[in-house]
Amino acid sequence: MHLSSLTPTFQKPQSPLFGSGPTKKFPGWTFDHLRDTLVSRSHRSVIGIDRLHQIIQLTREILEIPDSHQIAILAGSATGAMETALWSLLGSRDTDIFAWDVFGKLWIVDAVQQLKISSTRVFEAEFGELPDFTQYHPNNDVIFTWNGTTAGVCVPNLDWIPEHRQGLTICDATSSAFALPLDWAKLDATAFSWQKGLGGEAGHGMLVLSPRALDQLQSYTPSWPIPRLFRLANNQQVLTGLFAGKTINTPSMLCVEDCIAALKWAKNLGQKGLTKRTFANFSVLEKWLDHHSYLTYLSCDKANTSPTSVCFKIKDDAALKNQETIIIQQVCQQLADLNIACDIKNHMFAPPSFRIWCGPTVESSDLELLIPWIDWAVDSAFSNS
Ligand SMILES: Cc1ncc(COP(=O)(O)O)c(C=O)c1O
Prior knowledge:
The chain has 385 residues and is of the alpha/beta class. The protein folds into two domains: 31-258, Type I PLP-dependent aspartate aminotransferase-like (Major domain) (Aspartate Aminotransferase, domain 2, 3-Layer(aba) Sandwich); 271-384, Aspartate Aminotransferase, domain 1 (Alpha-Beta Complex), CATH 3.90.1150.10. It contains eight helices and 14 strands.
């Protein structure tokens, strides 16, 4: 039978872009926003540095980052920013790592296998669960992810981190920055990118450093070589230009322009407005998933369920659970072919599941329109299996 003869006539979402990174661009974005890009101009020209500095300033204002903290634009997206922090700050203390999704688990490789920090304690949880944060020792450095994008599990708060501590807290905030408020008093090194909460272009990372992280750069030199791309200090002298927009290497001025446009959109909403949009989006899916007969969150505890990257699976007791990989693949393919939802299959290293981005650039009305299509596609896949 031809697909179109079976396809319902539900209204389609205005945008099919529900992927978790790169995420949908902000409402109203067009290529016109790139018109004033400094094409073929040096990022080190006065006007070039000014553009990069604007990103730092706007990021500070929107995320309400205290003046005491410094913000750098780095190469290599969130991974580049995170590895810059790990390579530059770790090694002087014991280290605790808390990991519960694909990316959090990758930072274990950096600390244990690459940097070979002998005194590392690893607290890992299965997908859907959070590790036991009561194990954290404030004398230690700690690495954790605010929102496990591939697990759909998010830290509910940072109550487990005291404001006064010896160790540094290194946080991968890739899928929480701009979507959720971050608790700066508890964060010493925070990494994120432009293509998640902001829907910006990929390739560049941001790193926010607290005064204590900056002190560490001035008082400690790691025993391992630090690649130039990760270098925040030379001979314990902080490279202060970095925090004024003088990047280590050449950024894309097209991406910079796009980021400025997204930041200006975000500034009008402020962190409160961005968070409100995220939760409004999440509540659309919540109303649907809380009572679904055969779909449920990957997250085991509602209190830790991510409102930004909503991961859900076929319930363990549902019919055809043993065919979930095929069913999920079919549903995602069908919705992409119909241009209703792109990139909603969860990461290849996560358990078979769907993942829908609910960050602030997504429209709630589109999520409302998406739901009946998913139900239809899953029902069809069940009945064809
Ligand atoms: C939690 C988390 N950390 C790190 C990354 C890697 O980000 P990037 O590709 O920007 O380096 C991702 C990407 O999805 C992520 O979700």
